[in-house]
Design brief:
By secondary structure, this protein is an alpha/beta fold. It is 27% helix and 22% strand. It has three helices and six strands, in the order ββαβαβββα.
């Protein structure tokens, strides 16, 4: 099971530059969706059950929900059982 956050579209500009550069280094293009650090396509693996978590950021220090937020945990925690 692979979970990917989809909160930030990378663009070369103020507020999205870090995501853009991180995505670009990871998958070769910056203009894509991800969690602000990891692009969705890098977080998903062929043959796995791939889950996209809308509005989920990479870190608990982010401005929104992250993978460990209570309302997000319920979407993926069951895969650990």
């Amino acid at each position: 099971m692979c979970a990917a956050g989809k909160a930030v579209f990378g663009q070369p500009g103020l507020g999205t530059w870090l995501a853009y550069k991180s995505y670009e280094l990871t998958v070769g293009k910056g203009e894509t969706w991800g969690d602000g650090i990891t692009p969705v396509e890098a977080a998903h693996l062929e043959g796995a059950e791939n889950l996209v978590l809308e509005g989920v950021w990479h870190s608990p220090r982010s401005p929104g929900k992250w993978y460990g937020s209570p309302e997000v945990l319920s979407a993926w925690i069951g895969y650990l059982r």
